[in-house]
Design a protein that fits this description.
By secondary structure, the protein is an alpha/beta fold. Helix content is 46%, strand content 16%. It has 10 helices and 8 strands. Strands 3, 4, 5, 6, 7 and 8 form a 6-stranded parallel beta sheet that branches. Strands 1-2 form a two-stranded parallel sheet.
Length: 290
């Protein structure tokens, strides 16, 4: 039968290559064959299509018949396969048991954080800076922490408007949020150069102000460092001023200090007598899940 002109009455067709349409490797191999099939000998169908599923089912039943025949006629082959499966499954269960006994291994980020924290990190003074994907405030915050011999608590706030769809999904954390990992890694690099210990904190929720205030109280920070806002008057009218809301819910012993983004190594003291500003707009973006 000519594979280029299939007869609808004959099934399966000749020259059909069945591949996984969602597999990158399979799709790449399919394109590799297609570029070199100059005589158009082959045709391709994804296993997700109706024809592909029917073809895969037919091939599966055919292979199952072969396996049953071999198992009934070749008992020594059946015994060999049984022994191999038993050894493989036993080794798999032993590996899972050993991994569970050893406990979950910390990620590279957590290892880097633990290595740079001194033994007395929790006893030192602490300053907090909030961020999301930007280290614009890092030089100023690190300069302050360096001058006051304090630990810099870097809080990554993932503000999310919750919905029934989002609640059913797996929530992000410090080990799965790539943006947070990149931000913390950059802060760790800058902190290593400045000689300042960094304590990363990750949190998600619908209200960034409440999240920052809660983490500030939990970690016992002395001041929360925020940047100037780029949002206009209409935004502040609807959402309210970030600094005012933050100061209203923070404990009385935790102050809010406005700092301006500076070049690395510059001093970062922002006079407290200056007009108050809001947190840097890039610090707490809002993601809405519908």
């Amino acid at each position: 039968m000519n594979p280029n002109h299939s007869d609808a009455s004959f099934w399966p067709d000749d020259g059909i290559i069945l591949y996984d349409g969602v597999c990158v490797l399979c799709s790449g191999w399919m394109r590799f064959v297609l570029r070199r099939d100059r005589q158009a000998l082959f045709r391709f169908t994804p296993i997700q299509s109706d024809y592909g599923r029917a073809l895969a089912l037919g091939l599966g039943l055919f292979l199952m018949a072969i396996w049953v025949t071999l198992a009934c006629t070749k008992l020594h082959a059946l015994a060999f396969v049984t022994v191999v499966l038993a050894i493989g499954l036993t080794a798999r269960q032993l590996t899972k048991w050993w991994a569970k006994r050893q406990g979950e291994r910390p990620s590279l980020l957590r290892q880097a954080v633990a290595e740079q924290l001194p033994a007395d990190a929790l006893l030192k003074r602490k300053l907090m800076v909030g961020t999301y994907g930007s280290e614009a405030l890092a030089p100023a915050a690190l300069a302050l922490a360096k001058r006051e011999d304090a630990v810099l608590v870097v809080t990554f706030i993932r503000q999310v408007s919750l919905s029934y769809k989002y609640e059913g999904q797996k929530r992000l954390n410090i080990d799965t949020d790539l943006a947070a990992q990149r931000t913390f890694a950059r802060y760790l690099d800058l902190a290593h150069e400045a000689g300042v210990p960094v304590l990363p904190v990750y949190d998600t929720g619908p209200d960034a102000v409440e999240l920052m205030a809660e983490n500030a109280a939990i970690n016992g920070v002395e001041r929360v460092l925020i940047g100037t806002s780029r949002n206009g008057a209409l935004y502040h009218l609807i959402k309210g001023h970030f600094q005012q809301r933050l100061e209203a819910i923070l404990p009385p012993d935790i102050a809010v200090q406005v700092v301006a983004p500076q070049a690395a190594g510059a001093e970062a003291a922002a006079p407290q007598s200056e007009p108050k500003a809001e947190v840097e707009a890039a610090a707490v973006p809002q993601v809405t899940a519908h």
